[in-house]
Amino acid sequence: MANSSIALIYGTDTNNTEEVGHKIAKQWEELGEQVDLFNIKDIELGQLEQYSMLILGIPTWDFGGIQSDWEDIGDDLANLTLEDTVIALYGLGDQFGYGDYFVDAMGWLYEKLLPTGATFIGQWSTEGYEFEASRACVHNKEHFIGLAIDEDQQFELTDQRIEQWVIQLYAERAVEAA
Ligand SMILES: Cc1cc2nc3c(=O)[nH]c(=O)nc-3n(C[C@H](O)[C@H](O)[C@H](O)COP(=O)(O)O)c2cc1C
């Protein structure tokens, strides 16, 4: 059985997405909620169905490419039963280095999870970012489908973005549960 109702699952090549995951979990703990943290390569996919909320983190690599551990299980995601699950996504990327593909993999993950019937929360404004294109954009480029974090170019904004996003998630989840 799961220890808490929220799981945060990340994939990472150089640990940035893991570190951001720890910060997000710590922020939830400050709001009084425990978060189970996993690397996607270490879990059975079925474990995801045990939680009422999933926070999923993914970095983008190699011009819109998918972090390899997520890519390995990508086709299995659609088979999960997540109708009663709330999902929030976060993506790591580099907006100046890869401005035509900024946090693309977060958009890929969203597309892969759409057939599961999950409810998505945590859209994030694109204000304050500079990029040309992103597969993770919705609403005519006004929002990302989840939180975009740029540890390469805007690391000084990471903590405040996380704090604000977690408060937003807390409120949005309450609306979904009502
Ligand atoms: C070779 C290389 C390719 C990258 N490609 C992209 C990309 O296409 N889009 C993007 O937004 N970021 C890209 N990035 C930036 C990474 O996503 C960013 O450094 C991220 O924080 C890495 O996360 P991780 O440490 O969890 O693997 C790339 C970085 C490198 C070094």
TrEMBL record:
PROSITE patterns: FLAVODOXIN_LIKE (PS50902)
GO molecular function: electron transfer activity; FMN binding
Domain Flavodoxin-like: 6-170
Cofactors, names only: FMN
PANTHER family cross-referenced by the UniProt entry: FLAVODOXIN 2
Function description: Low-potential electron donor to a number of redox enzymes.
Entry protein name: Flavodoxin
Organism listed in the record: Marinomonas arctica
